[in-house]
Amino acid sequence: MNRRQRSKIFLLLGSLLISTSLLAGEHKPSFTFDAKLAYLNDSNVGISDLDTNSGSADTATSYGLSLSASLPISKQFISRFGYDFNDTSYENLSQFDLGLHHAFAELTWKSSLLDANVNVEKFAAQLDGDDYLDLVQVTPSISRLIGNKVYLRGAFTQASKRYEALPARDATNDAYRADVYMLIDNMDRYIAVGIMNSEEDADDAAFDYASLRWNMSYGQTFALASRDMKFKASLSHEGRSYAAVDESMGDYRQDKRMRLRIGADWNVFEHLSLAAHVEHTDIRSNLESAVLDKTVFGLGVNATF
Question: Of 1, 51, 148, 174, which is least surrounded by CB within 10 A?
């Protein structure tokens, strides 16, 4: 997907959102604004997407701002769009400072049988102040809620990646995903399992790969001091098989990537919550530079209006 194709997609979707807003009539839009500030402790700062890590620990501050709008067009059609920015700045290893812009627009059609959705997203990342990655992805999906007990979702995502300084890694990625959510206690708790199969086709065949990822998660909302506490734990495992022999080791590259995350968000006031999380990433590979073992602790405050 080249730049011209991406521009056409956003132009068409933008035109769609403008036209739907004109048709909305009595259906009023709703807006949400979020701001967050966090302190992070990273045991091994790096960029796994580039198969590089420092081997050193560092602390960082992170902040984010987001604005989104939901526009009901009719009883069946809903459009949403928004923009957010996140910035992470390390105390010592500034070469890994990361800024991420993200914009999205989506249209959902609801019926008694299923919901259908088309989502378009654009990500633009800067690494140490320089342009790093431009990514556009389009995701059509279908979902169905069965008796307020089971939620099913299937999706296909086509993504286009462009690396500013590493054109050999420019790639397209096609992914198929299926998720099942089991809802408990009137949706106050859930258990989810999912699987995703993807193939990445890079400009340099050395970066072509096929992957299979499964994930599972558990979430629960409960009262703590008369305020809602949201808890979530998730575990994912991905196996990647690369299509070409890596010249540096004379063999096909194989990765096994595991990520465990546990987090909680406590709504201490109406618009203010405290958040904490711990995330462990373990990447095992026969390519030495891709091996990664890191743990990140985070503590922050979130405001929602």
Answer: 148
User: What is this structure's pTM?
Assistant: 0.88
In this structure, how many other beta carbons lie within 10 angstroms of the beta carbon of residue 167? Answer: 11
CATH homologous superfamily of 3-304: monomeric porin ompg (2.40.160.40)
User: Nearest Cα to 238, choosing from 274, 210, 273?
Assistant: 210
pLDDT digits (tens, 9 = 90+) for 197-226: 999 999 999 999 999 999 999 999 999 888
Question: What DSSP designation does 70 have?
Answer: E
| Mean pLDDT in residue range 73-92 | 95
Residue whose structure tokens are 């993200």: 102
Contacts of 244 (CB under 8 A, 6+ apart): 205, 206, 208, 252
> Token match 């049988």: residue?
113
Q: Where are the domains of the chain?
A: 3-304
Contacts of 101 (CB under 8 A, 6+ apart): 83, 84, 85, 122, 123, 124, 125
**pLDDT tens digits for range 103-157:** 999 999 999 899 999 999 999 999 999 999 999 999 999 999 998 899 999 999 9
Count H helices and E strands in the chain, helices first.
1, 16
**Burial bucket for residue 45 (CB in 10 Å: 0-12, 13-18, 19+):** buried
Q: CB–CB of 246/253 below 8 Å?
A: yes
Q: Which residues of 95-113 are buried (b: 16+ CB within 10 A; e: fewer)?
A: ebebbbebbbbbbbeeeee
Tokens matching residue 229: 């506490």
